[in-house]
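Why should sequence recovery work at all? Because a backbone constrains its sequence more than one might expect. Tight turns favour small or flexible residues, buried strands favour hydrophobic ones, and helices have their own preferences. The token representation captures these environments compactly. In the example below, the structure is given first.
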């Protein structure tokens, strides 16, 4: 029995993510969902926002959808707040939402922005900003393509340093874009994303390049990587536990007045897939 106990201890030491992955498989497939049929979001677990415009004009499904509109020369939408939602910690998360952009939607013409949705982790507090954290992952449209990205600016002083590339102008990041332009009309489209944290070799004190990043557009896989590092051994207990819906254009980047709508959003531990419009 001694050899069995030793073998089990070695398994835990060399494959610390195995049990976490097994626990994730046992987690409920939907961690939370939101149909945006009314503005009472704060009563349904959302926080850090105060104003929500629910549009009943052409929602994807149900009674309404949340509307974010920008006035010329601004950064934040004027009619709805950015907002957050906590969920049970998980080393793997899936996001699904439906999005529509206004006619004549304009892009920044830069290789960044607008920001839209994010996941953060247990290594930061519930009100920590997404721009300089131990890990923030991004799901957003960029110049018509679907972009998934990650940054860990706050780790510059950690023992193992940054995992998402060197700082440039105070920022860092790894970017995973669809090959084709996908957002090129004013119709509803389904965006899905999946992030799974890489495992860690604690004995060798190094990360394994086995994290997963995937993105789908209208049910079609358009981004797929399975060799990603999202964390170092500085954070062996890191898990995703916070979602942010925070549409934002950096100063001077908004091309003109425009609007986007979000509907039928859900976060889970398994792929949720598009829903049929009702």
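From this structural description, the recovered sequence reads:
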């Amino acid at each position: 029995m001694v050899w069995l106990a030793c073998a089990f201890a070695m398994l835990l030491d060399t494959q610390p993510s195995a049990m976490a992955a097994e626990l994730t498989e046992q987690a409920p497939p939907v961690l939370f969902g939101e149909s945006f049929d009314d503005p009472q979001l704060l009563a349904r677990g959302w926080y850090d926002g105060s104003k929500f415009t629910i549009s009943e004009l052409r929602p994807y499904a149900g009674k309404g959808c949340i509307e974010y509109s920008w006035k010329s020369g601004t950064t934040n939408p004027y009619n709805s707040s950015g907002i957050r939602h906590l969920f049970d910690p998980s080393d793997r998360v899936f996001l699904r939402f439906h999005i529509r952009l206004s006619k004549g939607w304009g892009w920044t013409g830069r290789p960044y922005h607008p920001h839209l949705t994010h996941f953060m982790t247990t290594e930061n507090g519930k009100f920590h900003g997404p721009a300089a954290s131990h890990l923030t992952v991004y799901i957003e449209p960029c110049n018509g393509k679907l972009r998934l990205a990650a940054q860990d600016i706050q780790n510059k002083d950690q023992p193992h340093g940054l995992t998402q590339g060197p700082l440039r102008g105070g920022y860092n990041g790894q970017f995973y874009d669809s090959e084709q332009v996908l957002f090129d009309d004013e119709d509803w489209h389904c965006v899905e994303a999946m992030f799974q944290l890489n495992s860690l070799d604690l004995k060798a004190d190094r990360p394994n390049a086995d994290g997963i990043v995937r993105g789908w557009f209208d049910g079609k896989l358009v981004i797929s990587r399975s060799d990603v590092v999202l964390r170092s051994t500085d954070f062996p207990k890191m898990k995703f536990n916070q979602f942010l819906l925070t549409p934002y254009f950096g100063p001077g980047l908004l091309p003109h007045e425009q609007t986007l709508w979000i509907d039928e959003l859900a976060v889970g531990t398994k792929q949720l897939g598009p829903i049929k419009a009702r």
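A few observations help interpret the result. The mean pLDDT is 92.
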